[in-house]
Design a protein that fits this description.
Layout (H helix, E strand, L loop, with lengths): L10 H11 L7 H21 L4 H22 L8 H13 L3 H10 L1
Helix pairs in contact: 2-3, 4-5
C-alpha cells in the first residue's frame, strides 16, 4: 500500500508530510487544515483587536469556538481507526466513478 520505496513513487513525500494529513479523511485533509489555521488566527486576533474590552473578547472567543465545533461536527473530517476501511472503499468507489482526485489517491496508494 505504498509504505516502501519500491511500492510507491511518492514514498519520500508521504514519509515527510504524513503527519499533516494522516488524521483526516482524504477529501478534507488540506481544507480542514486551513480551517484550523483560521481558528488559531481568530483567537490570536481576538486578544489583539479587543484588548480594551474583556467581555467582548470572551464573547468573540466563544463565537469562534462554537463555529469551529459546528464545522467539525458537520464535516466530520477526522479519521477514526474504525472508519479506515469505509474511507478506502468510498475512495475506490469514487475513483471508479471517474473522480480524478480520488483516482489520483488510489494510484498513489497502489
Amino acid at each position: 500500500m505504498g509504505n516502501t520505496k519500491s511500492s510507491s513513487p511518492h514514498y519520500e513525500f508521504r514519509r515527510a508530510y504524513s503527519r499533516m494529513y494522516s488524521f483526516f479523511v482524504p477529501k478534507y485533509s488540506w481544507g480542514f487544515m486551513l480551517v484550523l489555521l483560521g481558528r488559531k488566527f481568530l483567537f490570536a486576533a481576538t486578544g489583539i483587536l479587543f484588548q480594551s474590552n474583556a467581555s467582548f473578547q470572551l464573547a468573540f472567543a466563544l463565537l469562534v469556538t462554537f463555529y469551529s465545533f459546528v464545522i467539525t461536527v458537520t464535516w466530520r473530517p477526522y479519521l477514526c481507526y474504525g472508519e479506515n476501511e469505509r474511507v478506502l472503499e468510498e475512495n475506490d468507489r469514487l475513483a471508479r466513478a471517474g473522480d480524478h482526485y480520488h483516482a489520483k489517491i488510489l494510484d498513489t496508494l497502489r
